[in-house]
From TrEMBL:
Organism: Paracoccus jeotgali
Keyword set includes Nucleotide-binding: no
Family under the similarity heading: Belongs to the SCO1/2 family.
GO MF annotation list: metal ion binding
Binding-site list for Cu cation: 83, 87, 171
Signal peptide: none
The protein's name: SCO family protein
Superkingdom: Bacteria
Pfam families reported in the protein's UniProt record: SCO1-SenC (PF02630)
Taxonomy of the source species: Bacteria, Pseudomonadati, Pseudomonadota, Alphaproteobacteria, Rhodobacterales
Gene3D superfamilies found in the cross-reference section: Glutaredoxin
Length: 208
């Protein structure tokens, strides 16, 4: 009789442990990636491995931190104002997506960080961003600061400075989605249309 009771109690405990483990596993999965239904990109170490704290110079000349920049959903792009084609096209696509999001009632902003601080002074960056979108925020800094912030987003770039005024800069063309309180949650390639980009961003914003 005692052996039978022990067996019954043991089985009951085992069932409870299995049910509890399944519950925790399911809850943990949801907590660990609440944006799983929106995600299409794979980042080594997870999307949380992208980004970090910084202090750069705004297009207004003021020094700003990442906390002051990312106060709303932001589409972050690394480029340079002397870029002959890719940067203006990508930045214009991002700006159009921001307007499409506004039509959905989502307040977001485009952010542009230069990878060419030698030529991209705050004044130059301001002229570039103002021509693309009134809410686009441009950031620059020292070479060391730009190097550091690029590495945080795993953004590759190479300045081909040949001594002329018209040198080019090789760089990646990803656009990163940064959400307040969540950090960088996704990145997008340049082949997305403004409509597709807005749709993808809206998914993340609504899930946050």
């Amino acid at each position: 009789m005692n052996d039978r009771r022990i067996l019954i109690v043991g089985l009951a405990v085992a069932v409870l442990l299995l049910l509890g483990g399944a519950f925790l596993l399911t809850r943990g999965g949801a907590d660990s990636d609440r944006f799983a239904q929106c995600r299409a990109s794979v980042v080594a170490g997870g999307a949380g491995a992208l980004g970090g704290p910084f202090e750069l110079t705004s297009e207004t000349g003021a020094r700003v931190t990442d906390a002051q920049v990312f106060t709303k959903p932001s589409l972050l792009y690394f480029g340079y104002t002397f870029c002959p084609d890719v940067c203006p096209l990508d930045s214009a696509r991002n700006a159009e997506a921001i307007d499409l999001l506004a039509e959905r009632g989502i307040d977001a902003q485009p952010v542009f960080i230069t990878v060419d601080p030698k030529r991209d002074t705050p004044e130059v960056v301001a002229e570039f961003t103002d021509n693309l979108h009134e809410d686009m925020l441009g950031l620059t800094g020292t070479v060391e600061e730009i190097d550091a912030v690029s590495k945080q987003w795993k953004n590759y770039y190479k300045v081909n400075d040949d001594g002329s005024d018209y040198y080019l800069v090789d760089h990646m063309t990803n656009t990163y989605l940064v959400l307040p309180e969540h950090g960088t949650v996704e990145f997008f390639h340049r082949d997305l249309t403004p409509e597709d980009l807005a749709q993808r961003v809206a998914c993340f914003v609504n899930a946050s």
